[in-house]
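Pipeline run #58 for the internal structure catalog. This entry was flagged by the ingest filter as a single-chain record with no existing model, so it goes straight to prediction. Upstream metadata was stripped on purpose; only the residue string is passed forward. Reviewer on rotation: M.T. Logging verbosity set to normal.
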Amino acid sequence: MAFARTCSVALVGVDGVVVEVQADLEPGVAAFTLVGLPDKSLTESRDRVRAAVVNSGAQWPQKKLTVGLSPASVPKAGSSFDLAIAVATMAAAELIDPRAIADLVLIGELGLDGRVRPVRGVLPAVLAAAEAGYEHVVVPERTAGEASLVPGVSVLGVRSLRQLVAVLTDGPVPEEEPDEEGRPDPMLAGLVVPGAGVGTGLAADPGEGPDLADVAGQRGARLALEVAAAGGHHLLLSGPPGAGKTMLAERLPGLLPPLTRGESLEVTAVHSVAGILPPDRPLVRRAPYCAPHHSATMQSLVGGGNGLPRPGAVSLAHRGVLFLDEAPEFSGKVLDALRQPLESGQVVVARAAGVVRLPARFLMVLAANPCPCGRHSRQGDSCECPSSVIRRYQARLSGPLLDRVDLRVEVEPVSRADLLAARGEPTAAVAARVLAARERAAARLIGTPWTRNADVPGHELRTRWHPAPGALAAAERDMERGLLTARGLDRVLRTAWTLADLAGRARPEAHDVDLALELRTGIARGVPVSAGGPR
């Protein structure tokens, strides 16, 4: 038989499309033709596959070989098709039974010596194969743990093409010589790509990351941080340099609850495609933290690049924290590009090669100085910036963007008394309250698509879950005076629900709404706040 077929997966963003790999051998001058919209790295697979087959002890067919990747209209990129092309070619040459590979999904890059090298995006590829009904997947041994996260799929991890051929032909499986101990492993080069993370780091395990107790003073900012973690509310920290804005933001991931199984798979899929998934941690269980530099471009922040778009910082922060330090220094167009993902939880990027939807449900934290020199305050202090310069600087954060920020807090300079005072509450104590508040919200929202207060649409929140009678009076007055937009009123109500959840109340009362207004507008409402959170 001169024809064989098997399957692999093409990634479009973080979604996979099952691709049928067909190999056809015909009499004629020996040639290798690859069709089906391959990119440059995939076109080069012809040389990799030929050398891998020969160095694995098999004979390369001296015939006209045509390999087709179907559907032909879907662009294919990367080297993950190497293994499928090699096996389909060997089956067409009757070195392998074609029936043994017809329902297999093969993913992996081939080295010239026949070793199967790991590739990025194994998890979303296996998820796509499972959704399409495939039950057997072959992946590089280094990524077998990542592929095994998908339930209902039998995963075979192989180290070389020789091993796979032995399994398919029921022959003795050869033992591959391991790399010498102490030498760097070149097989890991395909998994982690330096510079692809755009300032991304995975949150540390509980007890290992920075502790909130290290932050001196900042009672109001600590409260805002707790509320942001409990309800998923976006946060703006404004204050002079050295007040602790970055310290607060870095401790926010430690307050977030562990990811659920579904959320972990979503985050792991994005990090696998981006090439920042640690080889020893195939499943991301803690919320990620992404802090791009203020010189970040539009493509690096929201996604893009040549050909099909790749995940940007907003997707790398999916289900975690996106921290924009020195926010006014970012390009205005870059900041305004965040408005769509802040509302929808996803990024839709259209390019000539196709349209890609990337997940982007993150908790945004902005940090800003009050002026270029950083010394401007309500007391005057020693700021020498002209008023026009201060206005232009503060106007870099546009009104539509700030309207989507629920909490806006002034971070005051730390005093000597704050530095000498006893340490504040540790991260573990605050995280326990955050988890309890999240559980109350989830119990109230059971049977709906939402689990956090920040995700509930305003109309649903106003019509299905009512605050205490008269609780919204102050917010409605602010809306009539033009201090709040309709979106702002909805966001104040969401924050009030979070404050009620933190305090263990069944529904928001007037002082919850007043405190929510104070956190949003910065105008004091005379609401007392205890050291352990809202009461």
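catalog note: The chain has 21 helices and 17 strands.
catalog note: Confidence is low (pLDDT under 50) at residues 194-199.
status: ready for reviewer M.T.
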